[in-house]
Amino acid sequence: MRQLLETRHKSELNYTCVPSSLHIFESVPSTNQTLWDLLKDGADKNSIVIATEQTSGRGQWGRTWISPRGGLYLSVGIVPQLAAADSYQLTLASAWGIAALLRQCSISVGIKWPNDLVLQGRKLGGILTETKVHNGQITQAVIGVGINWANPVPDTGMNLQSWQASQPHQAISSLEMLTKTVLLGIQSGIDCLCQEGISVLLSRYLDLLTNIGEQVYINNLVGTVVGVTTQGNLHVCFDINEPNEITTPEIYLEPGTISLGYLDTPTAISAWDY
Ligand code: BTN
User: Where does the record place the BPL/LPL catalytic domain (predicted)?
Assistant: First the structure.
């Protein structure tokens, strides 16, 4: 794996946000945490950490990311010129970049707001971006990505190797190839954000977002997902034909405040405080 990655690394990853030092482990608690530890010990700010398994993988909102062998677990360090308030843009960029690269391999990946990669309505992977901030600016970011390759998944999950087995053509033939594709996807998403800006990135992200037009139920009112803001908030508009008690025709929901369902399950949100 190292050789494959280093070959690609030298020829194609020549961008300032791009990793310059690769650390491969058999088993770590969390590749994000290992990268933070390495950074503390003076590692290059654009380092990558990859592990065969994680024993305490971290998911969004404090969840655990179950990480047995067979999955892809990696973290990439970057130093973006970004305000802390815009940190979610790194997740949007990475999600779009990875999904776009996999789609180029004829894998019809979509994005489920805010940070999930989905295939046939099931979760293929997720992204966890962590940042260090000083005076309102991000001084270091770690983008962690987990993708189900050959590992077991729950009913709402999808593993790429099994999905490909049902397809006429297998574009991604190994975990190493998936790793390269994901690293290039992150690079491409960050490039888009840094060079073309958030408006362009966001319109590309929205093109791949599976939730657009989806109905969500909030305190028994029906809303429709119409977009995502530059800070990653979900934009929901209420149907104007709903009962009169609606006073707010639209709301913006921060990542982590609601969870959209899988497999066309309607999303119901109650006891909402907004
Ligand atoms: C999610 O909750 O959807 C995000 C999951 C992110 C998991 C990846 S696996 C590699 C990196 N290291 C971690 O501990 N988490 C991320």
Answer: 12-209
Query: Interior CA angle at 69 toward 65 and 74, to 5°?
Result: 60
Residue with tokens 């990439």: 76
User: In terms of domains, do 219 and 265 share one?
Assistant: yes
Q: Would the pTM of this model clear 0.85, i.e. be above it?
A: yes
* Domain housing 91: 1-207
Question: Which residues, other chains included, contact 58 with Cβ-Cβ below 8 Å and sequence gap of 6+?
Answer: 30, 32, 33, 64, 65, 128, 144
Query: For position 106, which CATH number holds?
Result: 3.30.930.10
244 pLDDT band (50/70/90 cuts)?
low
Pocket-testing residue among 131, 145, 183, ligand 1, by greatest number of atoms within 8 A of Cβ: 145
Domain boundary among 207, 231, 258: 207
* Cβ < 6 A, ligand 1 pocket: 30-32, 54, 57-60, 63, 65, 73-75, 115-116, 126-128, 144-146
Q: How many domains does the chain have?
A: 2
One domain, residues 87 and 199: yes
pLDDT digits (tens, 9 = 90+) for 160-187: 999 999 999 899 999 999 999 999 999 9
